Amino acid sequence: MRKYFKVDDNLDGIIDEAVGQERVLGSRHIITGWTNIVIEVETDQGEYFFRFPRNDFWAKMIVKDQKFCKFIEGKTSFYTPSMKLLYDRKRPFSVHRKIQGYSLTDRIYNLSHTAVAGVAYDVAKFIKELSAIDTKSAPEEVKMPLSEFLEELSLKHYEDHIVEDHRYIREKEAKPCFVHGDLNLGNILVDDKGKMVAVIDFCFAGVGHTGMDVARMMSRPTPEPFEKVLLESLESVDRKEIEEMQGIWKRIDAGYVGHMKRNHPEIKLPEGM
Q1: Residues of the chain with pLDDT under 50
Q2: How many other β-carbons are positioned within 10 Å of the β-carbon of residue 57?
Q3: Which domains does the chain have, with CATH numbers?
Q4: Which contiguous run of DSSP H or E holds residue 27?
Q5: Which of 15, 18, 28, 140 is the most exposed place for a label (fewest CB within 10 A)?
């Protein structure tokens, strides 16, 4: 039996059972969900996000996502999802209360120069706080090397497997620390004044090289002042390494976008991809 979900599964019934005594007032599919079927649900007691994995690989990773979020909760200055892992006929899915805020993707080009600099500083702060968490105290389930995750991702989803890129990532993990793995504007939440409040979506998370988080953030379009403050706030990063890692992330995105276009044409991809 498959361990993942399809859009024609009875997801509404699964949600109704999961919320128990709460009454569902409405729901909407988030059409930008690449790895999971994401549904925002409003009940008479609050708002939630449900994530249903699209294949066996993401079913395995959603378990890691929940365990990682549980482990780092309260260990940084920013909110992270307080996530529950549930099962439907042995198929894992997750649910967490909605964190109030706005995607930085939607806000960054409308922020003042001062606010952009502030967000960049806070992103750097999150990277430093995450990388400072002692890996020895963590359960084994959350210490998956980013290089291992990305290699398995490409083997299962890409038409072209870029051996040199994965070799480079492994070489840079000699002294690994915790990384988000998919740190981009869409996974940063800000309040109505543009202040960073939360980080979401830890499916890629594990241990790796700090530069991979910096490069991930800069591998997609971001304002030049944002990048400038981010790099200045992370003095220890090697600029040449960041440039190399940016190229790797762009190739990773291109590979997965190809998979999405072939298998999930209903998903809305960022412009230019």
Answers
A1: none
A2: 18
A3: 11-97 (3.30.200.20), 102-263 (3.90.1200.10)
A4: strand 24-30
A5: 140
